[in-house]
């Protein structure tokens, strides 16, 4: 069963997103590397170390078949990720900014090469748990999730040092599109009659309109046609920050307009597209 909608191929965008990040990092001074970010307890240096961890972890797992750190007894996925991410970041505080820049520049093309060989419709190496916990993710969604993570962490660095950028529609629109594939999971607790629909409008140059329909006793991505049972509209900045909890659900709701089924709009305005 494919509930996620048509594939989004972000692979051509990785080099551009990475170059924007490298250009940004290369221009930072020592004080900027120490600026706090929206990630609790992490400064710019820590966020960049986390991105480096992502590169190394995906190469180790998806290219080399290496399992990496194991779960502790009774450890949940969020707890496991919080622990292992923190361990890597703490160890990376010994690394110079210049070395981390060089490592990102060196490892990025190697990860691009891994994704270039993959069948986008095949089963993913890592399921995207915020999109579904009972249906295997396709490879395109797994790769898309990585792209959203790299882009979001770049934005967190940019926010910390007050240097906006990398928000051109062709770079940002796929992030919003991949995040919107979390709509069926966001609505999973709400049974509705077959054919019920909900729409999410994201306003802005990178935005769009996404629909979900109740079909075969579950929510699925669909073309946003007709008058929906529920509708939510918010701007593009609000949506990506909501999905990554850069703002609170209440803040996102204050910036949104909603019509129709209140339970459905409440769940849409609580969409989460990270593991937390």
TrEMBL record:
Annotated TM spans: none
GO MF, any single term: metal ion binding
One Pfam family linked to the record: MDMPI_N
Record-annotated Mycothiol-dependent maleylpyruvate isomerase metal-binding domain positions: 16-157
Protein name: Uncharacterized protein (TIGR03083 family)
Taxonomic source organism: Actinomadura citrea
């Amino acid at each position: 069963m494919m509930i996620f909608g048509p594939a989004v191929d972000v692979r051509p965008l990785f080099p551009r997103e990475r170059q924007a990040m490298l250009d940004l990092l290369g221009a930072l001074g020592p004080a900027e590397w120490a600026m706090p970010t929206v990630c609790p307890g992490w400064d710019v240096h820590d966020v960049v170390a986390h991105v480096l961890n992502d590169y190394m972890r995906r190469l180790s797992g998806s290219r080399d078949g290496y399992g990496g750190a194991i779960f502790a007894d009774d450890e949940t996925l969020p707890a496991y990720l919080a622990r292992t991410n923190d361990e890597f970041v703490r160890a990376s505080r010994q690394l110079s900014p210049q070395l981390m820049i060089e490592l990102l520049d060196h490892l990025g093309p190697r990860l691009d090469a891994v994704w270039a060989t993959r069948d986008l419709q095949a089963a993913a190496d890592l399921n995207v748990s915020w999109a579904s916990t009972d249906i295997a993710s396709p490879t395109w969604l797994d790769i898309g999730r990585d792209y959203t993570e790299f882009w979001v962490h770049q934005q967190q660095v940019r926010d910390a040092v007050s240097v906006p950028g990398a928000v051109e529609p062709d770079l940002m629109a796929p992030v919003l599109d991949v995040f919107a594939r979390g709509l069926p999971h966001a609505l999973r607790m709400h049974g509705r009659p077959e054919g019920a629909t909900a729409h999410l409008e994201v306003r802005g140059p990178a935005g769009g309109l996404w629909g979900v329909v109740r079909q075969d006793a579950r929510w699925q991505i669909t073309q946003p046609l007709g008058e929906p049972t529920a509708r939510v509209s918010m701007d593009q900045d609000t949506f990506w920050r909501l999905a990554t909890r850069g703002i609170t659900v209440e803040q996102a709701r204050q910036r949104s307009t909603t019509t129709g089924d209140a339970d459905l709009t409440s769940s849409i305005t609580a969409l989460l597209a990270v593991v937390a």
